[in-house]
Design goal:
Length: 90
């Protein structure tokens, strides 16, 4: 997927971003997976009665997914800034 490993790289068409790095691709993939998990859990919690004994499990999983998302968002933004800063002008 990435043509160069240590520098900013132009990636193949299967990449999410046109200029990326291994680290940024990793963070973006984890972000997308966490968002999908959050979306699915929110869907379950929206229809689950408030007194259902399974709510604790789903709310716990939602908390874990949110903290996982938080863990990857800031580093992804920092890496994206680094990648863009290393792009040639013009």
């Amino acid at each position: 997927m990435i043509k160069k490993r240590t520098q900013t790289a132009l990636v193949e068409k299967t990449s999410l971003l046109s200029a990326s790095s291994v680290a940024l691709e990793h963070h973006m993939q984890d972000i997308l997976e966490a968002v999908e998990e959050i979306h699915n859990l929110a869907g379950v919690l929206n229809v689950l009665p408030l007194d259902d004994e399974k709510r604790d499990v789903y709310e716990g999983r939602l908390y874990v997914a949110l903290t996982h998302l938080d863990h990857h968002v800031k580093p992804a933004i920092q890496e994206w800034d680094r990648v863009v800063d290393r792009l040639p002008e013009g």
